[in-house]
Design brief:
With about 170 residues, the chain is an alpha+beta fold. The chain has eight helices and six strands, in the order E-H-H-E-E-H-H-E-H-H-E-E-H-H. The chain folds into two domains: about 70 residues, Ribosomal Protein S8, Chain: A, domain 1 (2-Layer Sandwich), CATH 3.30.1370.10; about 90 residues, K Homology domain, type 1 (Ribosomal Protein S8, Chain: A, domain 1), CATH 3.30.1370.
Length: about 170
């Protein structure tokens, strides 16, 4: 049994939509239910620790802003979850500026990073989160970290595209 806490507004949405919670539980092969407050309790029928671990990651990814169908991809062995915490970067104004740079006008920057890298990105609270294969997340993080450090968008794109070419050239 595991307990996971997610942000209150995400927990509230999950409590309202029982089908969404049922879908997550089915994908993870676990029973997921709310306990007191906003905590979620995860139990697998046959004490499968790996299924519970996957469910924890799916719920945590949902709490960080991903839609359930995207978070549920974490049950696949080749998908990973990564987060960059902006909380220690500076004041809320600076964090807002960084988030705006990562999202871009009309979501253009975020969409471009997702299309080149293949990773999915969620900007929620003081975090930037990624779901994808190891190399997809690596490529997306290169661009995002460049933007966080104050680099220009074209530099961030060039670094990401170079990482993408390097990963494509790797033999598997």
């Amino acid at each position: 049994m595991l307990q996971v806490y997610i942000p209150a507004e995400r927990a509230k949405a999950l409590k309202r939509d029982k089908r969404m919670l049922a879908s997550m539980a089915k994908a993870c092969r676990c029973r997921i239910e709310f306990t007191e407050g906003d905590a979620l309790e995860i139990n697998s029928e046959d004490a499968d620790a790996y299924a519970e671990f996957n469910a924890k990651n799916v719920i945590y990814a949902y709490g960080r802003g991903f839609e359930p169908r995207i978070a549920e991809t974490l049950v696949h062995d080749d998908k990973y979850f990564s987060t960059i915490d902006l909380g220690n970067i500076g004041n809320s104004k600076r964090i807002g500026q960084i988030k705006a740079r990562i999202i871009g006008a009309g979501g253009k920057t975020k969409n471009y990073i997702e299309s080149v890298s293949g990773a999915r990105i969620a900007v929620h609270g003081d975090t930037i989160s990624f779901i994808g294969t190891y190399s997809e997340i690596e490529e997306a993080e290169v661009a995002v970290k460049t933007l966080i450090e104050g680099g220009m968008h074209r530099v961030a794109y060039a670094k990401m595209e170079a990482a993408h070419r390097k990963n494509k050239a790797k033999p598997f």
